[in-house]
Design a protein that fits this description.
By secondary structure, this protein is α+β, with helices and mostly antiparallel strands. About 45% of the residues lie in helices and about 20% in strands.
Length: about 250
């Protein structure tokens, strides 16, 4: 019997991808020994691969704790992929229109591992305004946009993300996620930045899988629950427009 041909693949690349996928799935930063144990590779091999990935910006090592996490090198890839997707030209005019209608900064976030990343942003044209910054990352369990994403993700992914939170905080987040899922939007007043408020809704693809979140944010003296609530139907309609454009 003839031997089956082996796929023409690089074992080094496959090992590096295994490490990157592991860092994407687990919450928080990881030690060399934990990575080695969980991906079932020797510490020598893992250390060599991590050093290479670190030089290229795909892995970050905290200089104090020596723990590893995904690096910012992926941000450029995410931004390029997203901005060159056919959907991007449809989203940008919608964000600009929302910016003009609300008078506040409008952003589009996508999930990346256990975080959300801002991939598009159109700042308010008012003198005092909120600015997030493209490439900025936050945990999925914090803020209006994070909850707008996390509340509509599969239960097992939610539990992985929430599992490392202190019990009291976890119960609080779970309660907020339930409200977000029921109402279809999330509001944040000073949760991340004391002076900032935000209103967010999820964005779905044609299969109703959550792929992003629309967010309108601004200074709380101007953008607060009183001014956000009337804008909810407009923001939800914008989300539906993005889905239909796919």
């Amino acid at each position: 019997m003839a031997k089956a041909e082996k796929p023409d693949m690089s074992s080094t690349v496959l090992r590096a991808m295994k490490i990157l996928r592991y860092l994407k799935e687990v919450p928080g930063s990881q030690s060399l020994s934990d990575i080695s144990k969980d991906v079932k590779l020797s510490q020598t091999v893992v250390h060599r691969l991590l050093n290479t990935l670190k030089v290229e910006g795909f892995v970050y090592q905290n200089p104090q704790t020596k723990l590893y996490s995904l690096g910012i090198g992926f941000i450029d890839f995410v931004n390029k992929i997203f901005t060159e997707m056919p959907i991007a030209p449809f989203i940008e005019p919608i964000l600009i229109r929302l910016r003009d209608q609300s008078g506040e900064t409008v952003g589009f976030y996508i999930p990346m591992g256990h975080e959300r990343i801002c991939v598009l942003e159109f700042e308010s044209q008012q003198e005092i305004r909120r600015s997030v910054g493209i490439g900025r990352r936050y945990p999925l369990y914090r803020g209006a946009s994070g909850r707008a994403l996390l509340a509509f993700m599969p239960e097992d992914r939610q539990q992985r993300i929430l599992s490392l939170l202190p019990l009291t905080q976890r119960r609080e987040v779970e309660s907020l996620l339930a409200v977000t899922h029921r109402e279809g939007y999330s509001i944040n007043e000073g949760e991340i930045t004391e002076s900032v408020g935000a209103l967010s809704v999820p964005v779905f693809d044609q299969q109703q899988k959550v792929i992003g979140a629309l967010s309108v944010s601004g200074p709380r003296f101007r953008w607060n629950r009183t001014t956000m609530i009337p804008f909810i139907p407009t923001l939800k309609e914008a989300s539906k427009s993005i889905t239909s454009s796919m």
